[in-house]
Write a structure and sequence with these properties.
The chain has five domains: 89 residues, no CATH class; 216 residues, 3-Layer(aba) Sandwich (Rossmann fold), CATH 3.40.50.300; 74 residues; 57 residues, Roll (SH3 type barrels); 76 residues, Ribosomal Protein S8, Chain: A, domain 1 (2-Layer Sandwich), CATH 3.30.1370. 45% of the residues lie in helices and 20% in strands.
Length: 607
């Protein structure tokens, strides 16, 4: 129909070119029209609109009126049909609204899980372990907004130390550390994996309250200090033992002495509430308070004084320096000005900074030493692996050489047997005794060529044990006197003590019987360890060291001792227990109490 209307209008334009303003077809009011000059009113066309200049009439020729009317009717019918369809679809949608809402909830859940999984993959994130007690343990935590620039943070507080105070220079990473703590706790409670190590463990808080950043307000006439105090007042009003409190720059924005006094009072209040709190500060009195208080963990952000740049690493147990005077001097401030500024500090503040600096140096030296030890340990591990590889190669080479020698000997034996069979056959066929003697001589020569087997050890003479004989205790090597025989058991006096042992653990001792005496038959060790550690040993090495240690205990007359074997996989502990069960002079053994080592320590009692 549209094509028919347009064709009609094109014919009209061709017939009335002198009246046409522009040979185009357009629409006005939903009807197709053509632009005519103002003098074309005599053509009988219906004018729908006039241009702004009044020079153009948008008119509908008479032959197009019926077609435009029909087009409008069709368009109206289409609109009514669309409305009918939409109403019908809306009714169907409303009828299934409950099911659709449930499906949307499921899709939202799936989308959330998928987003968590994508985040975990891209950030190598983990799901932290749930900490049953109020304790935050961050291990190699990386703030996601820092990207590849994030320095891993390791920090643990809670339990006996529910409050952590973080100190250090400006731009050292204190605020980032606080935000990492709060963010990770919130992510964990939202079921989102966190970019951290597998040892990370977090609790569930009912409330997480923070005061971070500077919020001045001109409209409300609030300074930095006032805005901080308003937040802190609100936090103290609702904090309890199930709350995590994070405070940045506590006591800042006012007189340092008054700010420090307020900070100390707020810390004591937080300790009394029993909540977990992470606090950052510059104030020296707060640093000293944190060091001395048994329930506060003092931490600092490491600062490299050589490069005058922060490393963003958290040092637990070490307070941080402000480093303002040091940085100023390194940046070129005249030394006399720095000394003048240092002289204005109180003696206590100078001494505190010196102690903190010494602790920082010792911590850095210890970390460097630990790194060197790790390098040496790795080198020793590689060296041990190399030597074990060489030892295995030597064993294989030895086995191959032995196999080759055995094959050579077997070949010689087979050849000798063949020659011997031939000689025996010839001896049977020989007719004279001289020929037989000649063959016998060859047999003897052949026997001399064969490899000689090692002679068997002489049988051990059986000497039954009798009461009064000197006997040797085989597991320990100690010598004693046989006092009494009871079937398969015997009672022996060893170093003045009567011990009941199985006969299989005894052997005759060489030499005359030792005189009965309460003195030990073997020399008494000058020093005997009551505890032996066999951690890291192989089973054979550990058992050998345990036997030597038990012998020293027996000779010294000590009745009990501790074997430290560690937990590990339990193989070493099991092997030691099985060995102790076989020793006749071991009265008993048991694992140590939990506070003394638990299943990593065995206590031995000797007979």
């Amino acid at each position: 129909m549209v094509q028919e209307i347009q064709e009609t209008l094109r014919r009209f334009l061709e017939r009335n070119r002198e009246h046409v303003q522009d040979p185009v077809i357009t629409r006005r009011g939903g009807r197709y029209v053509v632009p005519l000059k103002t003098g074309a009113r005599s053509l009988g066309a219906v004018v729908h609109e006039t241009s702004g200049s009044g020079q153009t009439l948008f008119a509908e020729p008479a032959e197009a009126v019926a077609l435009n009317n029909r087009l409008r009717e069709v368009e109206d019918e289409i609109d009514r049909e669309k409305r009918r369809i939409l109403l019908e679809l809306t009714g169907l949608l409303l009828g299934a609204a409950e099911e659709i809402e449930e499906d949307l909830a499921v899709l939202a859940r799936i989308d959330g899980l998928y987003a968590r999984a994508r985040f975990a993959q891209s950030w190598n994130a983990v799901v932290p372990r749930f900490s049953g007690e109020p304790r935050v343990e961050l291990w190699e935590a990386r703030h996601p907004l820092l990207g590849d620039r994030a320095v891993p943070i390791s920090l643990s507080f809670g339990g006996e130390k529910p409050v952590v105070v973080i100190t250090g220079p400006n731009t050292g990473g204190k605020t980032v550390t606080l935000k990492t703590i709060g963010l990770f706790c919130a992510l964990f409670q939202a079921g989102v994996p966190v970019p951290a190590g597998a040892r990370t463990a977090l609790p569930v808080f009912e409330k997480i309250r923070t005061d971070i950043g500077e919020e001045q307000s001109i409209e409300q006439s609030l300074s930095t200090f006032s805005s901080h105090m308003r937040n802190i007042i609100g936090i103290l009003a609702e904090a309890d033992e199930r709350t995590l409190v994070i405070l940045d720059e506590l006591g800042a924005g006012t007189d340092p002495q008054e700010g420090a006094a307020l900070a100390l009072a707020i810390l004591e209040e937080l300790l009394g509430m029993g909540c977990l709190a992470a606090v950052a500060t510059h104030l020296t009195p707060v640093k000293l308070f944190a060091i001395a208080h048994p329930r506060i963990l003092s931490c600092s952000m490491e600062f490299d004084l050589e490069t005058l740049s922060p490393t963003y690493r958290v040092l637990q147990g070490v307070p941080g320096q402000s480093c303002a005077l040091i940085v100023a001097e390194r940046l070129g401030l005249p030394k006399d000005l720095v000394e003048r500024a240092r002289a204005k500090l109180s003696a206590g503040e100078i001494r505190a900074e010196e102690i903190i600096e010494e602790l920082a140096r010792e911590r850095a030296a210890a970390r460097k030493l630990r790194a060197n030890l790790e390098v040496e340990r790795e080198a020793l591990r590689k060296l041990r692996a190399e030597y074990e590889k060489r030892l295995q190669a030597l064993r294989e080479k030895k086995a191959a050489a032995l196999g080759k020698e055995l094959r050579r000997l077997e070949e010689e034996i087979r050849e000798a047997r063949r020659e011997l069979a031939e000689l025996i056959a010839r001896a049977r066929e020989a007719e004279t005794s001289a020929a037989r003697r000649e063959i016998l001589k060859k047999v003897e020569e052949l026997g001399e060529k064969l490899p000689k087997a090692a002679p068997p050890p002489p049988p051990r003479p059986k000497s039954p044990l009798r009461v009064g004989d000197p006997v040797r205790v085989l597991p320990s090597g100690a010598v004693g006197i046989l006092l009494e025989l009871n079937g398969e058991e015997a009672e022996v006096e060893v170093r003045g003590r009567r011990v009941t042992l199985p006969l299989s653990a005894l052997a005759p001792a060489e030499g005359p019987p030792p005189p009965p005496s309460r003195e030990p038959l073997l020399p008494i060790p000058q020093k005997v360890e009551l505890e032996i550690s066999v951690r890291g040993r192989t089973v054979e090495e550990a058992l050998r060291e345990v036997d030597l240690w038990l012998d020293r205990l027996l000779r010294a007359g000590i009745s009990s001792g501790r074997i430290v074997h560690g937990r590990g996989t339990g193989t070493l502990r099991k092997s030691i227990h099985e060995h102790l069960q076989r020793l006749p002079f071991v009265k008993g053994f048991h694992l140590a109490p939990p506070e003394e080592g638990g299943d990593g320590v065995t206590i031995v009692e000797l007979a």
